[in-house]
Amino acid sequence: MADPVNAPIPSNPIQPAEATTPARQHVVALVDDDRNILTALSIGLHAEGFATRVYADAETALKALLENPPDLAIFDVKMPRMDGLALLKALRTQSSLPVIFLTSKDQELDEALGLALGADDYIAKPFSQRLLVARIRAILRRSELTRLPPEQNAEVEVPDPIARGRLSLDPARHQVTWEGRPVSLTVTEFLILEALALRPGIVKSRNQLMDAAYSDDVYVDDRTIDSHIKRLRRKFRAVDPEFAAIDTLYGAGYSFADG
């Protein structure tokens, strides 16, 4: 196995225009024991304007994440010695740093545990680079809103919490409860549920839900939306076995039953 990569890959220096002040560059930490994945992700994120720090060893990454926190971290789930779930558990004792997991398909048990530990989203391999970037930007927007001091929050248009019967959603903080009990959702699942709950009783087509949950340049097929709906129902039924608030109109789409 190649020696662990435990040092940042430097970004190419870019000289800002003289008359403008460049925006602060967001820093994303990548933790994976596969050097090829680290390199590919780092190059792709640099192209999208992010700075990266890469780590092939979770224990080294934990120390660095706590001593010099980035804006967001991406963990592979399956790593030797300390895996991504153990890394997140250790991190959460001292930090609320936003975290995205990269995982193989059909690892729903790992996903449930990761979200319970405080992961912000899951992306299954193989994945689209554009999808990953879209999820990173969505999480960073939400994270920055929650960190703003009250006087600055007043100047930013923050979406109001949504209450629909037993359902409560807080878009600014990415929090969901059903009958007062928390439900852990990924960013994608939250955006789909929010689109349905904003207009209860109105059927949303799969295309409309795709538009709500994905950026314009990310393509997903109908089955992706169906899979998200199944997972949403499963997660709500874990806290309420009688949950039936998401209706299916076959051939048309889905709606939220306010009640």
Record the SSE blueprint.
Elements lengths: L26 E5 L3 H13 L3 E5 L2 H10 L4 E5 L7 H9 L6 E6 L3 H10 L3 E5 L3 H19 L2 H4 L8 E3 L2 E4 L4 E4 L2 E2 L4 H12 L7 H8 L8 H18 L6 E4 L3 E4 L3
Parallel strand pairs: 1-2, 1-3, 3-4, 4-5
Antiparallel strand pairs: 6-7, 7-8, 8-9, 10-11
Helix pairs in contact: 2-3, 3-4, 7-8, 7-9
Characterization of the model:
The chain folds into two domains: 27-149, Response regulator (Rossmann fold, 3-Layer(aba) Sandwich); 158-256, Winged helix-like DNA-binding domain superfamily/Winged helix DNA-binding domain (Arc Repressor Mutant, subunit A, Orthogonal Bundle), CATH 1.10.10.10. It is built from nine helices and eleven strands. The chain has helices at 35-47, 58-67, 84-92, 108-117, 129-147, 150-153, 187-198, 206-213, 222-239; strands at residues 27-31, 51-55, 72-76, 99-104, 121-125, 162-164, 167-170, 175-178, 181-182, 246-249, 253-256. The strands form three sheets. A five-stranded parallel sheet has the order 2-1-3-4-5, sandwiched between helices. The chain has a four-stranded antiparallel sheet with strand order 6-7-8-9, covered by helices on one side. A two-stranded antiparallel sheet has the order 10-11. The radius of gyration is 19 Å and the shape is globular. The protein starts with 26 loop residues before the first strand and ends with a strand. The model is unreliable at 9-21 (pLDDT under 50).
